[in-house]
Amino acid sequence: MARSTSPRNNGLDTPRESRRSIRPNYDPEVFGRLSERFARFLGTARFLVYMTVFVLSWVFWNALAPRDLRFDDYPFIFLTLILSLQASYAAPLILLAQNRQADRDRISLNEDRAQNARSVADTEYLTRELASLRITLGEVATRDFLRSELEDLVKELGAKPESDAK
């Protein structure tokens, strides 16, 4: 059965066919996570050890190997090119990872501010409630007050018949 292409049937109930494009599919979130992993790796001792072993191997091979097996003679221009290329990619990836971390920190800071505002509001509410309870309790008769008032009444009642008898 052929699909209707009338304007009334806009196809919201069916998935849209993907358009073919020459451009590669780019997901910034995946690229960002990859750059963070790479930046994290660049900041480790393991990376420094790997780079040191790589550079020393390169230098020793091109300095000590037989002349016909060397591929980068003394000024090691090709090694310099490779290290420059690595640095030119590493710097922007590290900056991208830092920007993503700054965004996460900003979101976390905003959430913390909102939480602090709620805590302050809750504290102010509880302070007002506590003050209200203190005022109310100030107006409530305590047990000792009632006892003393009752004792005074008993004394008055006990004293009145004697004065009436005279």
Description:
The chain is mainly α and 166 residues long. It has one domain (28-151). It is built from 4 helices and no strands. α1 crosses α3. The radius of gyration is 42 Å and the shape is elongated. The mean pLDDT is 85. Keywords: Membrane, Transmembrane, Transmembrane helix.
Please tally the β strands and state the result.
0
Unreliable spans are: none
Beta percentage is under 5%
Q: How large, in whole angstroms, is the Cα Rg? A: 42 Å
Q: Give the helix level as a range of percent.
A: over 70%
pLDDT averaged over residues: 85
Succession of helices and strands = HHHH
Q: What's the tally of helices?
A: 4
N-to-C terminal Cα separation, in Å?
Answer: 120 Å
Molecular shape: elongated
Taking the sheet with the most strands, its summary is: none
Structural class: mainly alpha
Give the number of domains.
Answer: 1
List the helices and strands and how they pair.
Elements: H1 28-42, H2 45-64, H3 77-139, H4 143-165
Helix pairs in contact: 1-3
What distinguishing features does this structure have?
166 residues, mainly alpha, elongated
In short:
By secondary structure, the chain is mainly α. The protein contains four helices and no strands.
